[in-house]
Amino acid sequence: MLKVENLEVVYNDVVLVLRGISLVVGDGQIVALLGANGAGKTTTLRAVTGLLEVHEGDITKGEITFDDHDVTDLDPSKRVALGISQVMEGRRIFAELDVDDNLRAGAYVNRNGKGVQDAHDRVMTLFPRLKERRTATAGYLSGGEQQMLAIGRALMQDPKLLILDEPSLGLAPLLVQEVRDIIVEINQQGTSVLLIEQNASMALSIASHGYIMETGKMVMDGEAAKLLRDEDVKEFYLGLHASGEKKSFRNVKHYKRRKRWLS
Questions:
Q1: CA-to-CA distance for 70 and 88, rounded, in angstroms?
Q2: Where are the beta strands (DSSP E) in the chain?
Q3: Neighbours of 228 (CB within 10 A)
């Protein structure tokens, strides 16, 4: 469904951020894109959704195709119309509007009245808490409820591909589990998912395939279950030595990681 091939991205005509990355999201898949802060995950998202220009970024090499369309230079709104929907890091809800108005705003490309109603019913079924708070001002919702609203708003256009940027960020462990289960249910209903996360354990537990980025490059990819068992992934992204001892990722020297990834 989504194919990114040999992509390079430069910011402000100077800074090379993505260095020839490639990834694939198949129809009906959940694919995890992992990496520490600054690895290039959000830039990858911006390239796929067409928002690079807003951030003074340009694709200088490579191609992005979605559902057999070349979308490399396509306007963001046209990508949305093709079926790409995203939930940005930090939720970005309309805080002054109520829950229902936020959801209606997410359906702006969905011109089918019945389709909008069906999408709204789907969101209310997925998120019973939102159904209880339909008239509540979004800015007064809890962090977990706001994340549910952000995901629900993205689903209002009935996307083929849902891109989630750090959906577990800032949430308590019980809410992370709830969001995880909701992502699985959305996928089981037929929506492909590209999950951009620092929470490797959560992401790989539900994905079929995973990619790991560092400094703008893909340093590892493979079946998600295999990545969960990989010793380097355990140490650097799950915080575990082979012995089971926990270790902080930030304390591992960068050159050591690079040497082990490339060996």
A1: 23
A2: 2-11, 15-25, 30-34, 57-66, 69-70, 84-87, 161-165, 192-197, 209-214, 217-223
A3: 18
